[in-house]
Amino acid sequence: MLQMSNIYKTFNAGTVNEKTALRNLSLTLEDGDFVTVIGGNGAGKSTMLNAIAGTWPVDQGSIVIDGEDVTKLPDYKRAKYLGRVFQDPMTGTAATMEIEENLALALRRGQNRTLRIGIKDKERQQYREMLATLGLGLEDRMTSKVGLLSGGQRQALTLLMATLKKPKLLLLDEHTAALDPKTAAKVLETTDLIVNRDHLTTLMITHNMKDAIAHGNRLIMMMSGRIILDIRGEEKKKLTVSDLLHKFEEESGEEFASDKAILG
After folding, report:
1. Residue pLDDT, tens place only, 73-105
2. pLDDT at 117
3. What is the C-alpha to C-alpha distance for residues 23 and 32, in angstroms, rounded to an integer?
4. Nearest CA to 89 among 183, 207, 166?
């Protein structure tokens, strides 16, 4: 479903601020893979997701999504393949529009707009049923402005919007990092529900090693713009935080420096 081959990305090339964010990065995801991504600050995690999304062009290498080479496509042309949820709950929704209006926009992504009636009763019932699966009571607040929702409610809604059209690839960029622990657990529970139900190929960046181990069928760890660990199957199921730290030290020759990731 995703094939990244020999990707390089350098920012501010030729200046004193030159930074190589991705170096010879290669990654293949099979259909239905749910891959968690972990690494310290500056490891290249978000840069990798931005490269997939086309936020900026890569310097070298190729990116193929479901057999289509998208390497040279701008971000708006890649949008039909992707669903994405960002770290900031304020991103991904229109605060001044109603919940049902936000869902209607998500459902019409990639389609031509007309002057026909915006939301039909049958469609509204569909939204009500989908919102009910979140267990947050939003199905009874469909005409509320999204800006009135809590961060967790908004992030759960964004997740629903990102997956409404069943994307080829779902990108989750630390989508629980800004939430309190209880709300983050609820959003992760919703993530598992949607990803497993719809068999979505997913890349989830997390700052929390426990979450990286507990979710998905595969875990990768990045350092200095490359993948240094790729753990899957039975090995991942038996993994502990101590095991992960030990493997990191073996592969990198360094100690993992993020207390937030270890203790989160």
Report:
1. 999 899 889 999 998 888 888 899 999 999 988
2. 57
3. 26
4. 183
Cα dihedral sign, 137-138-143-149: positive
Q: For 11-39, b where at least 16 C-beta lie within 10 A, e where not — what string?
A: eeeeeeeeebbbeebebebeeebbbbbbb
Would you state the CATH architecture of domain 2-263? 3-Layer(aba) Sandwich (3.40)
Token pair for residue 131? 């919102």
- Give bridge partners of residue 7 from the DSSP assignment: 25
Strand partners, 195: none
Give the integer Cα–Cα distance in Å for 238 and 246.
14
**Residue showing tokens 């409404």:** 164
Instruction: Kindly tell me the sign of the dihedral angle through the C-alpha atoms of 145, 146, 148, 149.
Output: positive
**Domain boundary assignment for the chain:** 2-263
**What angle do the packed helices 99-107 and 121-132 form, to 10 degrees?**
100
